[in-house]
Design a protein that fits this description.
single chain, mainly beta, 13 strands, about 10% helix
Length: about 200
């Protein structure tokens, strides 16, 4: 983050309460509601608001995913860290409707990992992998869920058109990312997270 403007207050219990008025983050804007922060432990609790962050910058957090990404996302995330562990992480990011979006990348083997090749599920996931090679996006939304409320860490909802030289195929999919939040954070580095359509 850069060019931030923060109001903060030292509370009687030696914790800090701060409110991020504005800051540049992932090519967009980051702000927050009042956040409680405990310097001795690093624990915190607060809500963060993101506006028009670049999809291309967000993807850079996952170095193993390479390709071309276009689009801007906005949303809010509520996060709580207690005793050194993330206890709550909920919220959403969604595509700005006035921001044209597209993806050109290879997900070969990422979604189909662990699925039996002869199964219907494998064929569905293979089609999803193929679609990302040249995908024009109309709807993109990523919802994060707090554990242990659900066995899903996140859900990706996406619709658009997969474009090839031969034809244009409508795409409408929901991908559930199952597992712990730590697995979601390390999504690209791991092979044991379960995906399902």
């Amino acid at each position: 983050m850069s060019d931030g403007e923060v109001d903060f207050e030292l509370l009687p219990d030696s914790s800090l309460q701060f409110e991020l008025k504005k800051g540049i983050f992932l090519g967009g804007q980051l702000s927050s509601s009042p956040v409680r922060f405990f310097p001795k432990t690093g624990d915190f609790n607060g809500t963060f608001h993101l506006s028009r962050i670049k999809l291309s910058e967000l993807v850079k957090l996952f170095p193993r995913i390479q390709g071309r990404f276009k689009g801007k996302l906005s949303g809010s995330l509520q996060a709580k860290r207690l005793s050194g562990k993330i206890e709550n992480f909920t919220g959403y990011l969604e595509l700005d409707p006035d921001s044209p979006a597209s993806v050109q990348t290879s997900l070969e083997g990422l979604l189909t990992a662990g699925a039996p090749p002869e199964s219907r599920r494998y064929r569905q996931l293979k089609m999803a992998e193929k679609a990302f090679e040249n995908l024009e996006i109309n709807v993109l939304r990523l919802d994060f869920y707090s554990e242990p409320d659900t066995d899903r860490a996140a859900t990706l909802t996406l619709s658009g058109q997969a474009v090839s030289e031969e034809l244009i195929v409508p795409v409408d999919m929901t991908i559930n990312i199952n597992g712990l939040l730590t697995e979601l954070i390390n999504l690209v580095a791991r092979n044991d997270i379960e995906f399902s359509l």
